[in-house]
Design a protein that fits this description.
- By secondary structure, the protein is α/β, with parallel strands linked by helices.
- It folds into 2 domains: about 130 residues, 3-Layer(aba) Sandwich (Rossmann fold); about 100 residues, Arc Repressor Mutant, subunit A (Orthogonal Bundle).
- Helix content is about 40%, strand content about 20%.
- The chain contains 8 helices and 12 strands.
- The strands form 3 sheets. Strands 2-1-3-4-5 form a 5-stranded parallel β-sheet, with helices on both faces. It has a 4-stranded antiparallel β-sheet with strand order 6-7-8-9, with no helix packed on it. A 3-stranded antiparallel β-sheet has the order 10-12-11.
- Helix 1 packs across helix 5, helix 6 crosses helix 7 and helix 6 crosses helix 8.
- The longest helix has 20 residues.
- About 0% of the residues have low confidence.
């Protein structure tokens, strides 16, 4: 049986870069998991951020490869827009090396970051790793599209949190962290697991990052952030999400 082609969207204003990526994707298999035969790759191409966003919305690619040097929109803007409806992995390509830029992109929803010039072999390896991670997440039992946690209502499809009808504004990183907790209720998640779920393969002090962002999230969803009901700390290990906690408040 012929496998369904794997759609990969390449957003780059340089035709030669799109050609290099397209040829690499088509020349090498992007086998994921235990598939006996790697699927063929259907390369989608866009030269502007807006065109890329439109293609991402209409074609729902399995993977997005995004260059930062676009003529119309910033890479951060494109990441944030795609993340409004898609959890497809996003690999960013950039000629710049600043850590602050990398952190901002990861915060906006990117999953990985590569600097130019890049090796086609490394790009394919990272593409496989991101597709594998997305597949593993998809195979888990997904939470309901609409979840009630105490006086909070979380709409996963709309990426929206409300308390008594009022919107609770979350940053992309806070949303990614909440999503990770919702996917693993009542399970202790280590610092490493949570860091990977939110920031992918990037480097950093997982414990320090999480201390900061869990603190931000608690201030937005807990009645008393100093005595959290839902986001419980497992000292020295990580955190646990208790959706139906009846702890005093």
């Amino acid at each position: 049986m012929t496998s369904v082609p794997l759609s990969v969207l390449v957003i780059d204003d340089e035709p030669q870069i799109r050609r290099v990526v397209r040829n690499a994707l088509k020349a090498e298999a992007l086998a994921v998991g235990d598939a006996a035969e790697a699927p063929s790759v259907r390369a989608l191409e866009a030269a502007t951020g807006r065109e890329g966003i439109d293609l991402a919305a209409s074609e729902l690619p399995a993977l997005v490869i995004l260059d930062l040097g676009l003529p119309d929109l910033t890479g951060i803007a494109v990441c944030r827009e795609i993340r409004r409806w898609s959890q497809a992995p996003i690999i960013v390509l950039s000629a710049r090396h600043e850590d602050t830029e990398k952190a901002a992109l990861l915060d906006a929803g990117a999953d990985d970051y590569m600097t130019k010039p890049f090796s086609s072999v490394e790009l394919l390896a990272r593409a496989r790793a991101q597709l594998r991670r997305a597949r593993q997440l998809g195979e888990r039992s997904a939470p309901a599209e609409r979840v009630t946690i105490g006086d909070l209502t979380v709409d996963l499809a709309l990426r929206r949190v409300e308390r008594h009808g009022a919107v609770v504004h979350l940053t992309p990183t806070e949303w990614a962290l909440l999503r990770a907790f919702l996917e693993h209720p009542r399970k202790t998640l280590t610092h490493r697991q949570l860091f990977a779920a939110v920031w992918g393969n990037s480097e950093g002090d997982a414990q320090q990052y999480l201390r900061v962002y869990v603190g931000h999230l608690r201030r937005k969803i807990e009645r008393d952030p100093m005595r959290p009901q839902y986001l419980q700390t497992e000292p020295g290990v990580g955190y646990r999400f208790e959706p139906d906690s009846d702890a005093p408040h």
